[in-house]
Write a structure and sequence with these properties.
globular; hydrolase; Ptyr_pPase_sf; three-stranded parallel sheet; LMW_PTPase; 3 strands; alpha/beta
């Protein structure tokens, strides 16, 4: 299964989701993209929480969503309803909203302290597990 996580800049939420998922669900494929990827690295706060979980995101480079990413994905997972709204008309039948399955939106931690990043990461992990239980039956 190919799962594509999408956030705004591809420096915090979606790469944390990607790196966590790759470790937790090695039988599936994960990518992350941003609506406005800059080509920069993952944010320091995101790197720190991944590092504390034994995951290395230092090689991550922020990427902007492309049509080939949408074609690759079996499921497209936006971090918020607002991002989902911006994707209207692009692979709508593939969109999986955490909030549609008893989960929640993932607020942007960018600019927050370590505690905010940890809360965001924990929320991501909870929502990812709910999603995978739904998708894998």
């Amino acid at each position: 299964m190919n799962i594509l996580y999408i956030c705004a800049g591809n420096t915090c939420r979606s790469p944390m989701a990607q790196y966590y998922s790759q470790g937790a669900f090695p039988g599936d494929n994960f990518r992350s993209r941003g609506l406005y990827g800059s080509g920069g690295p993952m944010s320091p706060g995101a790197l720190e929480v991944l590092d504390q979980d034994g995951l290395d995101g230092r090689g991550h480079v922020s990427q902007t969503l492309q049509e080939e990413d949408l074609a690759w994905a079996d499921w497209i997972v936006p971090m918020t309803r607002d991002i989902q709204d911006q994707l209207r008309g692009l692979g709508e039948n593939k969109v999986f909203g955490f909030w549609d399955q008893g989960g929640s939106e993932i607020p942007d931690p960018y600019g927050g302290d370590g505690t905010i990043y940890q809360i965001t990461y924990d929320l991501l992990k909870k929502n990812i597990h709910l999603m995978m239980e739904t998708l894998e039956g």
